[in-house]
């Protein structure tokens, strides 16, 4: 495949994942939980450390009941970015990493 096709496939799959997450977040929960799961999609062009620091800083000023989990989606991160994310996940229990195909399963498991 040429690079344009690969780029189009990645963009479309990212949009589909974001739309699926938006639909799932708006669904009413059976147990009336107030928190939600947020998703960050990171690729090899992102400054992972800066984005994670910003999210952690914002969470510190947020009520614990508002956000249950932040799922970091690996959308083509390089090895260095992946290791940085693993370190942040170990230090912060609210962060969790996932591959693109694991996102929906993690969202459903965090809702329970």
Write the topology of this structure.
Blueprint (H helix, E strand, L loop, with lengths): L2 H24 L9 E7 L5 H13 L6 E8 L4 H13 L3 E5 L3 H9 L1
Parallel strand pairs: 1-2, 2-3
What does this entry look like structurally?
By secondary structure, this protein is α/β, with parallel strands linked by helices. 53% of the residues lie in helices and 18% in strands. The chain has helices at 3-26, 48-60, 79-91, 103-111; strands at 36-42, 67-74, 95-99.
List keywords for this structure.
4 helices; alpha/beta; 53% helix; three-stranded parallel β-sheet; single chain; globular; 18% strand; 112 residues
**Total number of helices:** 4
**Measured on Cα atoms, how large is the radius of gyration?**
15 Å
The average pLDDT score comes to: 78
User: Could you tell me the number of beta strands?
Assistant: 3
Kindly report the spatial arrangement of strands forming the biggest sheet: 1-2-3
Biggest pleated-sheet summary = 3 strands, parallel
N-to-C SSE string, H for helix and E for strand: HEHEHEH
Class based on secondary structure composition and strand pairing: alpha/beta
Beta-strand portion reads: 15-25%
* CA(first)-CA(last) distance: 40 Å
Q: How does the overall form come out from the CA principal axes?
A: globular
């Amino acid at each position: 495949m040429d690079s344009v096709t690969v780029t189009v496939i990645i963009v479309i799959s990212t949009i589909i994942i974001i739309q699926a997450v938006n639909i799932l977040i708006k669904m009413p929960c059976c147990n009336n939980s107030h928190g939600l799961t947020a998703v960050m999609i990171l690729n090899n062009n992102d400054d992972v450390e800066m984005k994670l620091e910003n999210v952690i800083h914002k969470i510190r000023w947020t009520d614990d009941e508002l956000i249950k989990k932040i799922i970091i989606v690996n959308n083509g991160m390089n090895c260095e970015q992946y290791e940085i994310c693993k370190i942040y996940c170990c230090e912060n229990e609210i962060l969790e990493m996932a591959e693109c195909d694991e996102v929906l399963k993690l969202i459903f498991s965090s809702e329970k």
